[in-house]
């Protein structure tokens, strides 16, 4: 190598080493990078008082045709599907302070309804968040108010009757779109089987505690709070097909948005009620 070339090589190599050294020293200890990444991505629970949120939800339902005692079904599902399911505890306390929950029998009925909303939510958001929610409620229950009735699905069987019941409810929500929707899973039949036998058979078609509208409130709120585009479309359409007027569906949509805003969640991908035309 000629002297000029060696000089150029030394200069270039020195600059390269300096750059590498600077880059290497940004995180001299690898675990510091992962610690910083964890801090940036970990969700934190809100410390704001949720009572005003609950009052707003109740007020909106009272002004609609949805029924005064259904707002907390939506709230339970949305909180369970959001980032702070432990807020189900304050929701329970808020409800027990109302005149409609003044006796142990009334509070037992209340907790049966909250519990069933969470059981149904398992099929929408998975099991862990509803577990957090029911434990938060359980911590706040007084002994006389506890409902220890047998499990609602005790004795359940994955049989033809279960399939018939599940398909009947699925067809009521999807009507003429049931076949094409299940057909989306032709290449992955496990998901069609789960939808028919478990999601709709075991969970959503059960009517021991919650009725049709309350069940669909659980489903729509639990899906929408997760910012899921396709399924939110399906269930805005589904609740309309149950006969709920468009103005009341807007109330449902607005209430889920209120919960999302309180939790600091951005629902950027869900369609509006007016976006759903294929009712």
What does this structure look like?
With 279 residues, the protein is mostly helical. It contains 13 helices and no strands. The protein has helices spanning 3-24, 30-41, 51-62, 71-81, 88-96, 104-125, 128-138, 160-174, 178-183, 189-204, 212-224, 229-241, 246-263. Helix 4 crosses helix 6 and helix 4 (71-81) runs parallel beside helix 11. The termini are far apart. Residues 20-44 have low confidence and may be disordered.
Approximate shape: globular
Reported for the largest beta sheet, the result is: none
The sequence of SSEs as H and E is HHHHHHHHHHHHH
Distance between the termini: 79 Å
Strand content: under 5%
Backbone structural class: mainly alpha
Helix coverage percent of residues?
Answer: 55-70%
What's the total helix number? Answer: 13
Query: How much is the radius of gyration in Å?
Result: 25 Å
Average pLDDT: 89
User: How many β strands by DSSP?
Assistant: 0
Topology:
Blueprint: H1 3-24, H2 30-41, H3 51-62, H4 71-81, H5 88-96, H6 104-125, H7 128-138, H8 160-174, H9 178-183, H10 189-204, H11 212-224, H12 229-241, H13 246-263
Task: Describe the structure using short key phrases.
13 helices, globular, 279 residues, mainly alpha
Task: Provide a brief overview of the structure.
This protein has about 280 residues and is mostly helical.
